[in-house]
Amino acid sequence: MKLAFKYQLLSLVMVLVIWYLLTWFVSPLLIPKISVVLLELVKIVTVPDYLLMIWITTKRLLIGMAIGVSVGIVLGVAMGKVKAIDHFFSPIVSILQTIPPISWLALALVWFGFNGKPAIFIVVTSLIPIISINTREGFKNIDQGLLEMAQIYQLNKQKIYIKIVLPTILPYIRSATKIGLGMSWKVAVMGEVLTTNDGIGGMIKEARNNLEVESIIAWSIMIVILFNLTTWLLKKMFKEEGAK
After folding, report:
1. 161-190, pLDDT tens digit by residue?
2. How many CB atoms lie within 10 A of CB 237?
3. Long-range contacts of 226-231 (CB under 8 A, 24+ apart)
4. How far apart are CA 76 and CA 176, in angstroms?
């Protein structure tokens, strides 16, 4: 773990060095100085109105993830248990997986309007296929020998699920949720940029309109920080090793 941290730190230092060198040759209107961006970051985390924008985006993300993960798990369990359900819903899940978020966003604008709900909607539509497919794969990898042994010892369904099924599918759900979390931050903010004037996406849109590159970069860094914070919390929730 210490070695991994060293390489991560080295990678960050390399990015900062390249950024610093670029500021010598490129106009600050295109690539602002590191110090200027840091001042913007300080403003973001200290100004109440900006903190409210962070909370608005986080709330939309959490609502979208709660719906997407819940529906995905239920659908994945059903597909994993019953082949007929799997055959019926597989084409629908493939459609959800194939259609790009921008297409769902265009539809959401027609259905919900410019009010932030499209951002929630595209998080849901992006998560459902990831969670359901991984949950279904988890069911396919359940050790049939263990299930047969459980039946021989006449274990009830509750114990079978707790002792055999859940430990098998949980890593698949955890992996899918981690992947979906990173994607959800991106599509949620993208949805806000295109559909509303509040939230982190609204702030990025405002900065773009005012040609404030340092603000765009600062908000982008904030998204990275929030992603890493939520990933750490997710690891804590699943009690993963290395989440200390």
Report:
1. 666 677 777 888 888 888 888 889 989 999
2. 11
3. 226/54, 226/58, 226/185, 227/181, 227/182, 227/185, 230/181, 230/185, 231/178, 231/181, 231/182
4. 12
- CA distance readout (Å), 23 to 15, 101, 112, 148, 218: 13, 34, 42, 66, 16
Please count the other Cβ atoms lying within 10 Å of the Cβ belonging to residue 38.
Answer: 13
Rounded to an integer, what distance in angstroms lies between the CA atom of residue 135 and that of residue 109? 30
> Residues of the chain whose pLDDT is less than 50?
241-244
Q: Would you give the DSSP letter of residue 220?
A: H
> In this structure, are residues 203 and 49 in contact, taking their beta carbons and an 8 Å threshold?
no
Contacts of 154 (CB under 8 A, 6+ apart): none
Alpha carbon separation from 153 to 32, 139, 143, 157, 165 (Å, rounded): 68, 21, 16, 12, 16
* Angle formed at CA 224 by CA 219 and CA 225, multiple of 5 degrees: 90
Q: How far apart are CA 52 and CA 32, in angstroms?
A: 25
Q: Burial letters for 187-225: b for 16+ Cβ neighbours within 10 Å, e otherwise?
A: bbbbbbbbbbebbbbbbbbbbeeeebbbbbbbbeebbee
Distance CA(209)–CA(222), nearest Å, equals 19
pTM of the predicted protein model: 0.83
- Helix-then-strand count for the chain, H and E: 11, 0
Which pLDDT does position 86 carry in this prediction? Answer: 87
Sign of the dihedral through C-alpha 9, 10, 11, 14: positive
The one-letter code for the residue type at 25 is F
User: How much is the pLDDT for 241?
Assistant: 44
The pLDDT, as a whole number, for residue 31 is 87
